[in-house]
Design brief:
The protein is of the alpha+beta class. Helices cover 22% and strands 37% of the residues. The chain has helices at residues 7-20, 74-78, 110-113, 133-141, 145-151, 178-182, 264-281; strands at 45-49, 57-62, 69-72, 82-83, 91-96, 104-109, 115-121, 124-125, 155-161, 167-170, 185-186, 193-199, 202-214, 220-238, 241-246, 249-256. It has an eight-stranded antiparallel beta sheet with strand order 10-9-7-16-15-14-13-12. Strands 3-2-1-5-6-4 form a six-stranded mixed beta sheet. A two-stranded antiparallel ribbon has the order 8-11. The chain is elongated and about 65 Å long.
Length: 283
């Protein structure tokens, strides 16, 4: 995608958008994560939702500032392939039908898709891989309530889909103290997300292994190794709910309004343990 418009084209885009809505649009994405803005083979048409969008029609102002395009979305909506509210002025993406370019096979409100998305994970016993399910259940039931309240704490994992195709991992809770070694449980590994893309109506998440090093100026810098791209179907997107699926497995996410809300309880307990560890160390 090329979001750098000429002065004349940009002016035309302003007038066209004004005709659609007075709502101020967000800056369009730019290159990030050392990947092209449009992934190879992506047929998605990107632009802004205009006035005239309805249950049967989506009106899109293309990113190049050309005239708005009306897409018939009746069948797509019946097939649950219209995700998001398509609010006027929102950044959206449409996958046209291969035989009729004015019919939308899929449509997504990308501004609705951006945001902080979480799901809940529970810890498991450190020796769970060598224990049967019944043995795990018995071990957890035998735990004192005080231990359960301290360590059997649900955490929120997920990602923060930002502008300019940037993605941030969610779920880390600092627990670097002696009590972490004493903990009878461990949490699932946390993915390190760096970016996201759309490819023909699917969500691509980009992740890798962070390695701390130095840049050319000798400053601390993180290099991403073993980068991978995971493809997910967007099964549902509305309000504070998102459902993604991959290889037959679905996961539901809920939206958070701020990063401060993520793992608030877990971070409070971690801070309490850290303080307790400091007091134990000075004894």
């Amino acid at each position: 995608m090329n979001f750098k418009l000429s002065a004349i084209t940009a002016l035309l885009a302003v007038f066209a958008l004004a005709a659609c809505s007075s709502k101020k649009a967000e800056p369009t994405p730019t290159t990030a994560n050392n990947l092209p803005e449009r992934m190879k083979g992506d047929r998605t048409v990107y632009g802004l939702a205009c006035e005239g969008c309805s249950d049967s029609v989506i009106v899109l102002l293309p990113e190049d500032g050309s005239d708005p395009i009306r897409y018939n979305c009746v069948q797509a909506r019946r097939n649950h392939k219209v995700q998001g509210k398509m609010k006027i002025g929102d950044w959206i993406g449409i996958v046209p039908n291969a035989d009729n370019s004015r019919i939308a096979d899929f449509a997504v409100d990308l501004d609705d898709l951006k945001g902080i998305w979480c799901y809940v994970v529970m810890p498991k016993l450190k020796d769970a891989d060598t224990m049967s399910r019944s043995a795990q259940a018995h071990a957890i039931a035998a735990m004192p309530d005080s231990v359960k309240k301290t360590y059997m704490i649900p955490r929120e994992y997920g990602f923060y889909l930002k502008r300019q195709w940037v993605c941030q991992s969610l779920g880390y809770v600092g627990t670097q103290n002696s009590f972490e070694d004493e903990s009878p449980v461990v949490y699932p590994p946390l993915s390190y997300f760096t970016g996201w893309r759309i490819w023909n109506g699917k969500l691509i998440t980009i992740s890798g292994v962070p390695v701390m090093g130095k840049d050319e100026n000798g400053q601390s810098a993180i290099t991403i190794k073993n980068e991978r791209q995971d493809t997910c179907d967007i099964d549902y997107l509305m309000g504070d709910s998102l459902v993604l699926s991959s290889e037959g497995i679905s996961r539901s996410y809920y939206r958070k309004n701020s990063l401060d809300e993520v793992n608030k309880k877990a971070r409070t307990i971690a801070a309490r343990l850290s303080e307790k560890a400091k007091k134990e160390a000075v004894k």
